[in-house]
Amino acid sequence: QVQLVESGGGLVQAGGSLRLSCAASGRPFSRFGMGWFRQAPGKEREFVAGISQIGGNTNYGDSVKGRFTISRDNAKSAVYLQMNSLRSEDTAVYYCAAHLPTAYSVVVVTTINEYDYWGQGTQVTVSS
Fold first, then answer.
1. Phi, psi of 29 (to 5 degrees)
2. pLDDT per residue as tens, the chain (128 positions)
3. DSSP string covering 44-91, please?
């Protein structure tokens, strides 16, 4: 089992920045590919950003490219999402997720059903 706990959400004005953190525990963090998803009211959960288990490869949803940056610190068992130039449409609950590949992998997983563990989410609200 892996426990994921998100933090860093809150209320911010449009154009502002937030940094989300996700702390992992329970299994060696370096084994996992990590991702961030979000879900706005009345909408499906969508992929925001992902980072591979090894190699530091990243991938982003089209709506956040150039504004958000995902990073990981294996020594701290944490993954981060730096969000800049926030827009009202970024308002959502943001979820951290972990994917356990069957072998060492440089692939960034982008689909929801490939992730094995999920955090409880943190609310991000962007006021216009």
1. -60, -35
2. 899 999 999 999 999 999 999 999 998 999 999 999 999 999 999 999 999 999 899 999 999 999 999 999 999 999 999 999 999 999 999 999 999 998 888 889 999 999 999 999 999 999 98
3. --EEEEEE-SSTT-EEE-TTTTTTEEEEEEGGGTEEEEEE-S--GGG-
Cα 50 to Cα 92: distance, rounded to the nearest angstrom: 17
Number of Cα atoms under 13 Å in the Cβ half of residue 125: 5
Q: What is the distance between the alpha carbons of residues 88 and 11, in angstroms, rounded to a whole number?
A: 11
CB 33 within 8 A of CB 101: yes
